[in-house]
Write a structure and sequence with these properties.
With 108 residues, the protein is mainly α. 81% of the residues lie in helices and 0% in strands. It contains four helices and no strands.
């Protein structure tokens, strides 16, 4: 019980770089909320764009071939992976971020 009491005392009255620990703990949650909201909006736009692409392809205005898609993935795939790695490296990962991500996705 002493360890839990000390932890709660540090959270309520401690200091991390001059800020209360609760403020430092809330920052990943808020970032998670924002990222979850943006992911939800981007997925909506991506689904709508995919549906439009299938309709346009069906009517013959735009051709989809596996060779073209393979060329595009060879050209832009490594860049997308690199930017994704940079994004994951910058995000403050933790339980607060994950909870904020889920809540932001569901609210968005």
């Amino acid at each position: 019980m002493t360890l839990i009491d000390e932890l709660i005392q540090f959270i309520t009255s401690g200091s991390i770089a001059g800020l209360p620990p609760i403020v430092v703990m809330i920052i990943p949650f808020i970032v998670g909320l924002i990222v979850g909201y943006l992911v939800h909006k981007v997925l909506k736009i991506a689904i709508i764009a995919a549906i439009i692409l299938v309709i346009v392809s069906y009517f013959g205005f735009f051709g989809l071939s596996l060779a073209t898609l393979k060329d595009l993935s060879d050209k832009y795939g490594p860049i997308a992976v690199q930017y994704g790695t940079l994004l994951i490296g910058m995000l403050p990962l933790g339980i607060g971020f994950i909870i904020g991500l889920i809540v932001g996705f569901l609210i968005g």
